[in-house]
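Key idea: predict the complex, not the pieces.
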Amino acid sequence: MKVVGFSGSPRENGNTVFLVETALKQLGKHGIETELIRLGDKKLEQCTGCYACVKQKQCSIEDDFLQLFQKILAADGIILGSPAYHSSITPKLKALLDRAGFLGRWVTNEMKAENSTYQWQGTAFSGKVVAPITVARRAGQNFAFAQLLLWATVNDFIVVGSNYWNVAVAGAGGKVDAAEDTEGIGIIAHMADNMAHLLNKLKQ
Ligand SMILES: Cc1cc2nc3c(=O)[nH]c(=O)nc-3n(C[C@H](O)[C@H](O)[C@H](O)COP(=O)(O)O)c2cc1C
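Result:
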């Protein structure tokens, strides 16, 4: 079993990376293979709304997206981490999720004629598990967290919870100090335990 953790921060070794790694290390204790992917060094254009993926079943933009989409497809679970940027996830993570969500829908469904009703056949992610993690200096974690939940729940993922929202408080003045948020770390570790438990049940 494999879980891929994505950090949407442009900062290579910032708070988001630390928190996503915290979750991945905890998953590792349960024998789950993990991989951390930093989006900061990836070339990821935003979705152009060309709708080419509806028919072609692939994205028309040539950048690092395909490699990342394949990482999601090959994983049993993913963790989506982002700092709050004005209460939102970062543009790069949004670009990945817009393109993956749209392509993931159209690889398993066909566009219907106008006025006909959809009976969606799942998505490329059906049955996969996901958990969001967000971090901010002061406020906005929950808005970014909600963005990630909305993406997950429209795309047929199974969302893993914890004993609180997986949000951390860190980064005043750009500090990398998420290690000091011991409550946040405990919540994220508990989420990882839940994810491992769920993945094991799903594999039975
Ligand atoms: C452009 C920008 C916007 C930010 N917006 C918010 C915000 O809305 N609320 C907040 O509390 N912190 C905000 N921050 C602070 C970051 O969320 C915080 O420092 C976080 O820990 C950075 O994570 P990272 O180290 O993974 O990059 C912002 C930082 C930047 C650079």
